[in-house]
Amino acid sequence: MNLPNKITMVRMGLIPFFVASYLYLTPNSVIPALLFIIASVTDFLDGHIARSRHLVTTFGKFMDPLADKALTLSAFILLVGGGQIASWVVVIIVVRELMITGFRTIAVSNGVTIAASIWGKYKTTFQMLAIIVLLMENNWLSFLRPFPVANVLVALAVIFTILSGVDYLWKNREILDLQNM
Question: 52, 171, 36, 41: which is closest to 100 by C-alpha?
Answer without folding.
Answer: 171
